[in-house]
Structures are given as structure tokens and as C-alpha cells.
Design brief:
heterodimer, A: 120 residues, mainly alpha, 3-stranded antiparallel beta sheet, globular, B: 861 residues, alpha+beta, 6-stranded mixed beta barrel, 25 helices, 21 strands, 16% strand
């Protein structure tokens, strides 16, 4: 379904699951399990999505037009052709960037007030 | 491996918690992902968490989907403001009417009485040819002694009591009961105590219980009132207790006296008191009835000459007050059910139009992957939202309508009847709202889900011109609506006719410019004899002096309000037993009574002032005279009143007067006889005041005059005779009003439905009309074509409605008066009215059809 609301601000701030999925899809088209693995790896196992919450998020993101389902499977060797692959849409990329910027500004504000040290 | 298969099967089972649309799309993926997870980490806690996740996420997904549907439905409703508004108003009227009637049904027939263990409280009544709703005192004593199923039985009566003292005399509704009454009702006094057995014995100490409201109003809420004496009638009576506010039993009583009866004077022939009992725990009402019926059979064997051959009914207490209205309520429930069905049909039609108008949109949504279930649900959500908005409107309507309806009830309702909404009303509202939404939305939703996507998209979303089955269905709905409104109009027509006939019924006396009032004089100051007669004469003189008054008479009661039935025996006619002797209506009157009421004296003479002292004269009505002396004059003949076995003295007939409906306008139940006032001691006397233009503020004028005669005479019930007549037929008026309202509502809804369908058909056939006009069809031909289409539907509806009315109006038979169910005149009038209204409703679309510009219509192609 096409995005209901083109304005980026309407969707921000993103739910953390949504943002992680967007990040996971930023450089690769992936299927669900691959998304879960990528997120777990990037967060040192801190964030482990359940299949149920992963697919709820995917359902919503499809509706909002942030990601799309691929018609054909990418050929990367260990592929199972029954799996569904997802890809970031240009709108999804725009949203992900906007969310990243928002977080960056937030961090900058926190640093400026000395709440967070300038260098970790 | 086997473990994994079982685990996956369980997971797949849990996925049924998701909405179908989600499941169809993601179930396979989720299972595969789960299998991956299980392979990688078989940690049981982590696995358990994956399963629990479904229980958390599936309801969220459901909620999300419903929210989306609601948002979508609200958006379409906003877009189609007018049709949504019409739908909400139609539903509000339908649901509001149904809720109103149900609230009445609930208050009268379903709500528990405000007494502890109220289902064990029963009403006991003797029933025979002549009586119902009463028990003779000696029979009550036998029931009390011999029953095996009752915990307690009591007798009670109601009337008016005159309060005297430092303040002006006041008549208040009063109750009287035997000792067990308060125990049966399970009520505790606020102050003091209830009656003792001693106080209920003959010649026991006088006692009175006051209601809280009366105690506060008249006695300033005096905390020390218990033990003090107050003036009631001509006695000083000790107050023994105060009953809590809200307790008014029976009816509207504000104070209670113990019933002290002398069995000698209260024979098995006297039926002036009512019976109430509490059934033993574990015994059913029917068992109690069988028990008392058995006792009644014994009583009849033991006292064959003193009983009419009656039996006993034992029923839940509410039956006493709801017996007469129950069939009316059921009829109204039926009527309002039809109104709701018509409203439903209207909404269905409206939604069908929406389905057609949104064909393209639905097709696009379907093409984009919305499942059939989803499409159905979206329509249902819209229908439910309309239903909810309608229900909200309906609640407001019912809330406003109920006090209005109660204003049509001239009597003070028994205290236990309350129309405040409760859980039952709420449950009913929820059920009819859900039912309406489902009934109205199901078919349009189903049709929407069955659209042929490819065909529709190819056609550019216009759908076929009339849509085959759908058009048939729409017409069918209009036919049904017309039929149901014919039925309701026929019912209402019969009821209105009944009311009119009764209202214009010749009562046998002139009702205009006649004021009636009831008085009570203290019997110690006016004992039987000259003092009482003097008081009546004095009051008549004072009232005659009022400006505009032409004549004043006194009597033992007011026609239609008070009656006194006795057995009748004519000299020379075969002597009948009490079971078979005819009953007559017995009124004591002063001279001038017939002139004041406008009852013609046909033969003989009126009473004169000296007749009061000579008690053995009587006047009878024409009906009685003709029945017993058809070929000779009744004047000079002798008659006897009271049970034939009692051999009361003979009365000589001095006059014959016109027949009057003294008991009920509906039928001349009993013939009337009149005796001179003064023959019997009569505690309360009614006055009838005839004036040239009616009295201005009669209550005030009359009171001032009476106070001049004696401050101790209490006045009650100052009413014009017209009001008395109206009140006596309030049930018919109430029924006709409410039925009429529903019928008009049904007619309007059916017309809205007809108009909607015609307007829609015309708009869909613009193209066709354009071509026809381009080919030379005249405006008249086009108009005729549209009118013929609606005419066919209306005719079919009329035919079905008339047939249904012929059968169903039979259910009204007992409510009707001088008009028969299926009355051809009424049905004809109703059909004519509906046909004219239907032509008017289809004329507007028909005219619009002739305004189609052929060029524009064709260009749209």
C-alpha cells in the first residue's frame, strides 16, 4: 500500500524495532531471519526480536511504504526460494536518515549540556 | 527432528490468534523463521519466550487492524456526510423507539419489586363472573387458617383519609392492612414500630403509621411524633411509627391504618379488600394457587348460598397493576419491532447504494491485496459505527420520550413502577444495536466482497446500470418497508378510531361545563340523619351561589369514577339465587341530579326534598324498565336490592330515566338504579356543579364556598366531567397516541427509503434517459417511466401489507371498540394515504429525470 503520509515528520520518532530493521536493510535486501540475526549481531545480542514482533513491524512498515517485498530472490548461494525478501524503499531510506539525524541532534544536545562526555 | 515438527505445529496453531489477512501473508514466513531460531538456540527459556510473544503480539495486530478499519470508515462517513447523517437519524429513531418501549416493558414487567425476596410475594384474588381483584374477609380468614403453602397472608385496602388538626383539613391517599402486611413486604419502619396483632383485632386500639414525606410535610418531621395522637376523620389516633420515604403501598398511600374488621358485617358477599401473601420458601406460586383453590372449593361447599361460585387466582404481585397493560405492551413491542425493521431496511439500502458507488474503490483495494474478509469487515465496521451513533441518538430520544409518555398517564403509578434504565435496558440496547448493525450491514458487505474485480476495473468502476440481483434486492426492501408501514398504519388507524369512538361516545349525560368534586365530613359532627342532610343542603346552596352555576346535585359518587354494584330482584320475576341474580349499579342522589347531569326523565318524576326521609322509593333507568316491563309502565312497580336471600325491603319505582354509562364508556355493563341520598350513611359525598360556561379555577372557588359552610369538610378530586371522561379512556388514548406515532414514523421511513432508491436509480440511469430523450422521448414519458417503476414497488408493498394487516390486526381485537380488525374503510384509507405519499416521494426524482440534458449525458460516455 502506498504511504498514507508523505511527510517525514509524521512518522518520527520511529519505534526502535522499526529503526533497527531499517538499518538492517540499509546495505542488503534480507529475509526475516536474516534481519533478526543482523540486529542481534550489531547490538551484541542486546536486542533479539521475536518472530511475532518482527513480522508485526514488517507488516506496519509495508503498509507505511518504508520497505517492499521483492518479487525475485537475490542469488547469494544459501538462498531458500520460498523465503520473502525485503528491501528499503527510497521513502524508507529518507525516513531512516531523518531518524538518524534526529538521534544525532539529540546526542549533540546531550553532549552540549555535559550530560554525556564528548568522547566515550 | 520430531520435536521440532511438534514445536512448529504448536506455533502454527498459535498463529490462529492473528487476523486472517495477517496470517495468510506471514504465517509461513514466521514458521520458517521460528525453525531457524530453534535450530540456532534450543535454550528452553528463550524458546518459551518466542511462543509467548505470539500471545502478546497477535492481539496488538488485531487491535491495529480494527483501528485502521475504524479510521477508514470514519473517513468515508465524513466524505459522505449527508447519507451518513440520514442513516444515523433513521437508526436513532428506530433504536430510540424500541428502547422507549422496552424501558416501559422493563419497568412494568421485568424489574424486581423493591421488596426483599420479592418473587415470593403474591397477589391473591377471587375471580368470578362479577368480581376480580378482591377477597371477602371471611374467605381470607379461612385461607389464613387452612393453607399449607403460605408463610403469611394479609388483606389490604386503599382509600382517602381526612387529616384534621390545627391546620386545614386535608385528604390524603391512605392504605389499610392486616397485621402481616409489613411482614409480607419485608419492610422496617424508620421510627417506632408496625401494627401489632392487638391493633388489628376488632375494637383494638386505634393506631396509624405515617409515611416519611407526610410526616415531614405536615408534622415538621417531629422526632417525638411516635405516641402522639393526630386527628384522622373524626377520631384522635395514636401514631405508632413512621415508614421510610418511597414506601407507598398500595398505589400512592401516605398513611396506614390497621384493618379492624367485624366478620359479622363483612360477609362472603363483600369484595372490598385485596389479598397479598408471601409464599413459603420452596413452594411455587402455582402450588399456592392449587392450595387456595382447594380451600375455596371447601368454602363453597360449606356456604353454598354466600358465594358466586368463584375461584382464586394466585399470581406474582405485579400482576395486580399490570394485568390490563400487558397485552398493550406486547402489541407495542411488536409495532416498534416493525419500525426497527423498516429502519434496518433503510440502512441496508443506503449501504447498498454505497457499495455500488464505491465499486471502483473496492475493486482497487481488492486488487491491492485486501482480502475478502477484510472488505466484509470494513463494511461491517461502518455499519457498526452507524449503529453506535444511532444508539447514542436513540438513548437521547428515549430519555426525552419517557417523561412525555408518562404525562399521558393520568393516574399516579404504584410506587414500585420505576422507569429508570438498568443493566437490563443496557443489555437490550447493546443487543438491538449489534443486531441492527449486523442485519443492515451483512448483505451489502457480502455483496461488496463478491464484486468481480477484473470486470469492474474494465468497466471503469461504473458497474452495470441496474446491477441485476442487487436492484431486485433493493426493490424487495422497499416493498417490505411499504408493507410494514401499511401494517402499522392499519393498526394505528384502528386504535385512533377506537379512541375517537369512545371519546365521542354518548355517555348518556352531558359532560360539558360540569364540575365534580368529592367531600368528606367528620362523622361525629354529622351523624346519620338530619345534620348530614342539612350539611349537604347547605353546601349545595353555597355552590349554587357561585357565579354562572345553574344547578348543583349531590350523589354517592361521580359517574365513571365510583360505582357500587348490588344484586337486583324485580317483584313478580322468578327469584334467582345470588349466583344468577343480575347486578345493577347503585347510586344515591339528591333531587336535581338528573337535571344537573342532563339525564332525561322519561316517565314519572325526580326525587323531591322530602323523599330523603322516605327511603323506600327508587328511580330506574330505561334499559332496566324495558327489560322487566317491556309492555307496561315501570312506575309503581316494586324492586329489591342486595342478595335475593337477604330479603331487603321493596322499593317502589317513582321514575324512569335515560340510560347512562356510569361504569365505563366501553359498555353498558350494568343498568343503573338511583335512591334518595340520605337512605344510607354515606361518609363521602360527591357534588356535581353545572354552570353556563364552566367554572374558572373551580378548585379555588369551590374550596372558598365550602370553608364558609364548615372548615372541617375536606375536599378532594376537583375535576371537570370532561377530564373524568378523558381519564376513563386514558389507556386507549395512550395506546392510540404511541401507536400513531410509530405508524407515522414507519410511513416517513418507508418514504425516505422509497425516495432514496428512486433518486439513486434515476442518477444511475442518467445515461439511458439522455439517450431516450435524444431519441425523442418527451418529459412526460420519462416521468411516467420513473413513476411506473416506483408504482410497481408501492403496489406490491400495499398488497402484501393489506394482506398482513387483515391477519395481524386481529391481535388487537380486545383493544378495539366499535371497529373490527381488518376494517375495510380503515385499510382503504391507509392504502390511499400511503399511495399518495409514495407518489409524492417519487415525483421529485421523476422530475429530475426529465431535466437530464441529452448532450451532457451522452458526453459522459
Amino acid at each position: 500500500m502506498p504511504p498514507k503520509d508523505d511527510s517525514v515528520e509524521g512518522l518520527l520518532p520511529l519505534h526502535k524495532d522499526t529503526f533497527h530493521i531499517l538499518v538492517a536493510l540499509a546495505d542488503h535486501d534480507r529475509h526475516g531471519y536474516s534481519i533478526m540475526q543482523d540486529i542481534a549481531a550489531r547490538t551484541d545480542g542486546q536486542i533479539r526480536l521475536r518472530p511475532s514482533s518482527l513480522y508485526s513491524a514488517i507488516h506496519r512498515m509495508l503498509e507505511d511504504g518504508l520497505i517492499e517485498e521483492l518479487d525475485e530472490r537475490p542469488c547469494d548461494g544459501n538462498d531458500d526460494d520460498r523465503r520473502r525478501y525485503y528491501r528499503l524503499t527510497p521513502f524508507g531510506r529518507k525516513i531512516a536518515v531523518a531518524e538518524a539525524r534526529r538521534l544525532e541532534r539529540l546526542l549533540a544536545d546531550a553532549r552540549a549540556t555535559g550530560l554525556v562526555p564528548k568522547r566515550l | 527432528m520430531r520435536d521440532q515438527t511438534a514445536a512448529l505445529r504448536l506455533y502454527r496453531g498459535l498463529l490462529w490468534l492473528y487476523p486472517a489477512e495477517f496470517r495468510d501473508h506471514f504465517a509461513g514466513e514466521m514458521c520458517r523463521t521460528l525453525a531457524d531460531c530453534l535450530r540456532q538456540s534450543p535454550d528452553p527459556v528463550a524458546v518459551l519466550w518466542l511462543y509467548l510473544g505470539v500471545l502478546i503480539d497477535a492481539p496488538k495486530e488485531r487491535y491495529h487492524m480494527i483501528r485502521q478499519d475504524v479510521v477508514y470508515a470514519l473517513r468515508t462517513m465524513r466524505r459522505e456526510k449527508l447519507s451518513s447523517l440520514v442513516a444515523v437519524v433513521v437508526l436513532a429513531l428506530g433504536i430510540g423507539s424500541t428502547a422507549t418501549v422496552f424501558t416501559l416493558v422493563n419497568g412494568l414487567l421485568l424489574k424486581p419489586l423493591p421488596y426483599p425476596e420479592q418473587d415470593r410475594i403474591v397477589y391473591v384474588e377471587e375471580v368470578s363472573r362479577e368480581i376480580s381483584g378482591a377477597v371477602a374477609y371471611p374467605n381470607y380468614r379461612d385461607f389464613q387458617d387452612r393453607n399449607r403453602t403460605l408463610e403469611d397472608i394479609a388483606m389490604f385496602g386503599s382509600g382517602l383519609a381526612t387529616l384534621r388538626g390545627d391546620m386545614e383539613a386535608e385528604r390524603v391517599p391512605a392504605g389499610a392492612g392486616t397485621e402481616a402486611l409489613c411482614r409480607i413486604l419485608g419492610l422496617q419502619p424508620l421510627l417506632g414500630r408496625t401494627f401489632t396483632a392487638e391493633e388489628c383485632r376488632l375494637d383494638g386500639p386505634a393506631a396509624v403509621l405515617l409515611g416519611e414525606d407526610l410526616w415531614r410535610r405536615r408534622y415538621g418531621g417531629d422526632a417525638g411524633i411516635v405516641g402522639k395522637a393526630i386527628g384522622i376523620g373524626s377520631d384522635q389516633v395514636r401514631v405508632v411509627g413512621v415508614m421510610p420515604s418511597g414506601f407507598h403501598f398500595p398505589d400512592a398511600a401516605e398513611l396506614w391504618r390497621p384493618l379492624q374488621l367485624n366478620p359479622k358485617f363483612n360477609t362472603r358477599m363483600d369484595h372490598g379488600l385485596e389479598g397479598i401473601a408471601r409464599v413459603r420458601r420452596g413452594a411455587a406460586v402455582e402450588q399456592a394457587q392449587d392450595d387456595l383453590r382447594g380451600i375455596m372449593r371447601q368454602i363453597i361447599q360449606e356456604h353454598p348460598t354466600e358465594n358466586y361460585g368463584q375461584t382464586v387466582n394466585v399470581s406474582p404481585y405485579r400482576v395486580r397493576d399490570t394485568k390490563k397493560v400487558k397485552p398493550v405492551l406486547f402489541t407495542l413491542m411488536g409495532a416498534v419491532g416493525f419500525v426497527l425493521l423498516i429502519a434496518c431496511a433503510n440502512i441496508t439500502n443506503l449501504l447498498l447504494v454505497k457499495v455500488t458507488a464505491r465499486t471502483r474503490e473496492i475493486a482497487v483495494r481488492g486488487a491491492l491485496g485486501a482480502s475478502r474478509a477484510r472488505l466484509v469487515r470494513q463494511f461491517m465496521v461502518e455499519s457498526v459505527l452507524l449503529g453506535l451513533a444511532g444508539a447514542a441518538g436513540g438513548v437521547v430520544l428515549a430519555w426525552a420520550a419517557i417523561p412525555g409518555l408518562l404525562r399521558l398517564v393520568p393516574q399516579r403509578l404504584p410506587m414500585w413502577i420505576q422507569f429508570t434504565p438498568d443493566a437490563r435496558v443496557l443489555g437490550f440496547m447493546t443487543a438491538i444495536t449489534a443486531g441492527t448493525a449486523i442485519l443492515a450491514g451483512a448483505i451489502p458487505a457480502w455483496l461488496a466482497s463478491r464484486l468481480n474485480l477484473v470486470e469492474t476495473l474494465k468497466e471503469g468502476g461504473r458497474g452495470s446500470t441496474t446491477g441485476g440481483a442487487k436492484a431486485w434486492f433493493r426493490s424487495g426492501l422497499v416493498v417490505a418497508e411499504v408493507a410494514m408501514s401499511v401494517l402499522l398504519l392499519a393498526g394505528a388507524g384502528l386504535m385512533v378510531e377506537t379512541f375517537w369512538k369512545l371519546n365521542r361516545m354518548q355517555a348518556g349525560f352531558r359532560t360539558e361545563n360540569l364540575t365534580t368534586l368529592q367531600t368528606a365530613a367528620p362523622s361525629n359532627r354529622y351523624p346519620n340523619g338530619p345534620a348530614g342532610t342539612e350539611l349537604v343542603r347547605g353546601i349545595r346552596k353555597e355552590l349554587t351561589a357561585l357565579p354562572g352555576v345553574t344547578s348543583v346535585a349531590a350523589a354517592s359518587g361521580v359517574p365513571l369514577l365510583d360505582w357500587w354494584g348490588r344484586s337486583f330482584t324485580a317483584e313478580g320475576a322468578p327469584l334467582l339465587g345470588v349466583k344468577d341474580a343480575p347486578m345493577i349499579n347503585h347510586t344515591l342522589v339528591t333531587p336535581g341530579y338528573f337535571r344537573t347531569l342532563g339525564i332525561p326523565i322519561l316517565e314519572g318524576r325526580d326525587f323531591n326534598e322530602s323523599d330523603g326521609k322516605n327511603p323506600l322509593l327508587t328511580i330506574v333507568d330505561e334499559g332496566l324498565a324495558k327489560r322487566y316491563w317491556p309492555h307496561e309502565s315501570a312506575v309503581g312497580k316494586r324492586v329489591r336490592y342486595g342478595p335475593p336471600e337477604n330479603s331487603e325491603p321493596w322499593h317502589t319505582i317513582v321514575g324512569v330515566v335515560g340510560s347512562a354509562r356510569n361504569q365505563s364508556l366501553r359498555d353498558l355493563k350494568r343498568n343503573s338504579v338511583y335512591l334518595p341520598l340520605g337512605e344510607f350513611e354515606w361518609a363521602s359525598v360527591a357534588y356535581l356543579v353545572r354552570s353556563t360556561d364552566g367554572l374558572a379555577d373551580p378548585a379555588k372557588a369551590v374550596r372558598a364556598r365550602l370553608m364558609a359552610v364548615d372548615r372541617n369538610v375536606a375536599i378532594s378530586r376537583v375535576l371537570s366531567m370532561k377530564d373524568v371522561v378523558t381519564q376513563s379512556i386514558w389507556r386507549e388514548r395512550f395506546f392510540a397516541t404511541i401507536f400513531g406515532f410509530f405508524a407515522v414514523l414507519a410511513l416517513l421511513l418507508a418514504l425516505v427509503g422509497l425516495y432514496g432508491v428512486m433518486a439513486y436509480t434515476v442518477s444511475r440511469r442518467t445515461h439511458e434517459m439522455g439517450i431516450r430523450m435524444a431519441l425523442g422521448a418527451t418529459a412526460g414519458e420519462i416521468r411516467g417511466m420513473v413513476l411506473a417503476h416506483s408504482g410497481r414497488m408501492v403496489l406490491a408493498g400495499l398488497a402484501a401489507g393489506v394482506v398482513a394487516a387483515v391477519f395481524l390486526t386481529r391481535l388487537l381485537r380486545t383493544q378495539l371498540f366499535e371497529v373490527s380488525p381488518g376494517d375495510p374503510k380503515t385499510l382503504g384509507a391507509v392504502a390511499g394515504l400511503l399511495a399518495v405519499a409514495a407518489i409524492a416521494a417519487s415525483y421529485i426524482p421523476a422530475r429530475k429525470a426529465t431535466r437530464v440534458d441529452p448532450m451532457t449525458a451522452l458526453r459522459e460516455e
